[in-house]
Write a structure and sequence with these properties.
mainly alpha, 2 domains, 7 helices, 0% strand
Length: 111
């Protein structure tokens, strides 16, 4: 599970195993073992290093993928956009205010 996610996030960022190993200061062979499922329980320190380099929350590595209503219907592009919003420091309330303004603006222009 962790290995599959690691590989997905690494490829999503366009990194090779060597590049990720260098940036995270983790042995390439160890990363390979994680991705192939040979090492199933990497330490939290290793996961934190990888999460930092990949700019992914640690929880993304350790929690089961959600298929509940929170993410149902959201494709990766939407999820990445939401992650960018959060990473930019925009609060949920600020985003809601912006969304309400956009709705208001569209309604006003549609009259």
């Amino acid at each position: 599970m962790i290995g599959e996610r690691l590989k997905h996030f690494r490829q999503q960022k366009g990194l090779t195993l060597t590049e990720l190993a260098d940036k995270a200061n983790v042995a390439k062979s160890y990363l390979s073992a994680i991705e192939r499922g040979l090492q199933r329980n990497p330490s939290i320190q290793v996961i934190e290093k990888l999460a930092h380099v990949l700019n992914v929350p640690v929880q993304e590595f350790v929690e089961a993928p959600s298929s509940n209503s929170e993410t149902a219907g959201l494709d990766r592009e939407w999820l990445e956009l939401l992650r960018e919003v959060a990473d930019a420091g925009i609060t949920k309330e600020q985003f809601r205010e912006w969304l309400e303004f956009q709705r208001w603006r569209l309604d006003k222009n549609g009259e």
